[in-house]
Specification:
Blueprint lengths: L14 E4 L3 E3 L20 H16 L10 E7 L9 H4 L7 H6 L12 E7 L4 E6 L5 H11 L7 E3 L5 H4 L6 H6 L4 E6 H10 L1 H4 L13 E6 L4 E3 L2 E9 L5 E7 L2 E4 L7 H4 L7 E5 L13 H11 L3 E5 L7 H14 L4 E3 L5 E4 L2
Parallel strand pairs: 5-6, 6-7, 7-8, 12-13, 13-14, 14-15
Antiparallel strand pairs: 1-2, 3-4, 3-16, 4-5, 9-10, 10-11, 11-12
């Protein structure tokens, strides 16, 4: 199967509502024929220690290539909606922002774009690039990391929610659908698709586009809060609250749980987080939570409750100095046995899926 072939996971019930514009899935997949068998043995602590070692090696040499058979997670962005550094900090002549100043330095880990990861998934069919969110800085993230890590196609995009830092880059996908592949499947909840009908109406209904004008060719697949499959990778939505009354999704794939935008976790979602090996979790600021995001103290409370083997925090604002906070977090391994650290843009973590 080609890297940009029509997804084999699109169910037979899918019907085209707008030709060549989007696809609508009446229900998520539940066919046992496409299920991915679980591995015989549970992942070991040793594998994650090896993964950390490999991540550190990749950190020293950004051009290092993973073995072709190795799946991995690539952090395309680990910051807030406005990104780091902030223009307002760099232009403030009365007060120097230490984190934003550091973020102007080449290669500094405090430089953060919109929160997003790419699952580089390898199975018996081939290797696939599954993107989670394409925010308003997606072009800059892709420009930095796609050439560096030898990535070209985008085989699917899963959307957590419909804020600009998650969907603002959908228009930039035209570079791929014009020059690399004929279309990109988008997996999105109905509530967020309704927002896209307004914010990206010309991508949903391409009949409004003037002849000769090229826009992103996207196939929209509606998902419920039930597992679905992308290139035989089972993805389980993790419903959370992102502010009062606003539903967002995390995603679980294999034993990896990703929750980027969260202010509270419903009790039923904890069941979906059991036996999590790697937790990637929202942690906005060092002192407290906001109405829409976990702060570091609350995020640590959740880590203690969920008990993953390893946690990487994401979505950090400019109050979170990468080296200083990580130095503090490293002490929790000694005192509590908590393996917790801040992630950073360009971090690569080898995983087994």
């Amino acid at each position: 199967m080609g890297a940009f072939s029509l997804l084999p996971s699109v169910p037979a019930t899918t019907r085209s509502l707008v030709p060549s514009a989007f696809r609508w899935s009446a229900s998520p997949l539940n066919s046992a024929a496409t299920a991915v068998p679980r591995r015989g043995l549970p992942p070991s602590r040793r594998r994650f220690l090896l993964g950390r070692l490999q991540s550190n090696i990749a950190d020293r040499d950004g051009m290092a290539q993973m073995p072709l058979e190795q799946s991995e997670i690539i952090f395309l962005g680990t910051g807030t909606s406005e990104g780091i550094p902030r223009v307002s900090c760099l232009t403030n002549q009365l007060k120097t922002c230490g984190v934003c100043s550091k973020a102007t330095e080449p290669g500094n880990k405090n430089r953060r774009l919109n929160t997003s990861i790419l699952i580089r998934y390898t199975n018996s069919i081939g290797r696939f690039n599954i993107l989670i969110d394409a925010g308003k800085f997606f072009y800059h993230s892709a420009l930095r990391w796609f050439p560096s890590f030898g990535m070209r196609t985008i085989d699917a995009v899963a959307i957590t929610h419909s804020h600009a830092d998650a969907i603002g880059g959908l228009d930039d996908l035209r570079d791929w659908t014009n020059n690399v592949q004929p279309h990109i499947p988008i997996y999105v909840a109905r509530r967020d698709f309704e927002v896209m009908k307004k914010t990206h109406y010309y991508l949903v209904d391409t009949s409004v586009v003037l002849p000769g004008a090229a826009v992103s060719a996207l196939q929209f697949n509606l998902i419920e809060e039930e597992p679905f499959f992308v290139h035989n990778l089972k993805i389980t939505p993790l419903p959370v609250w992102h502010g009062h009354g606003y539903r967002s999704l995390g995603f679980r794939f294999g034993d990896i749980c990703y929750i980027s935008d969260v202010s509270d976790i419903p009790e039923e979602t904890y069941e979906l987080l059991k036996d999590c090996e790697l937790l990637i979790l929202d942690a906005l600021r060092p002192d407290r939570s906001s109405p829409t995001h976990f702060g570091l103290p609350r995020a640590l409370e959740e880590v203690r409750k969920i008990q993953p083997r390893r946690t990487l925090f994401t979505g950090m604002m400019h109050l979170m100095d990468h080296d200083k906070v990580n130095e503090q977090l490293s002490k929790l391994m000694e005192t509590e046995g908590l393996d917790v650290q801040l992630s950073y843009d360009g971090l690569r973590v080898p995983v087994s899926l």
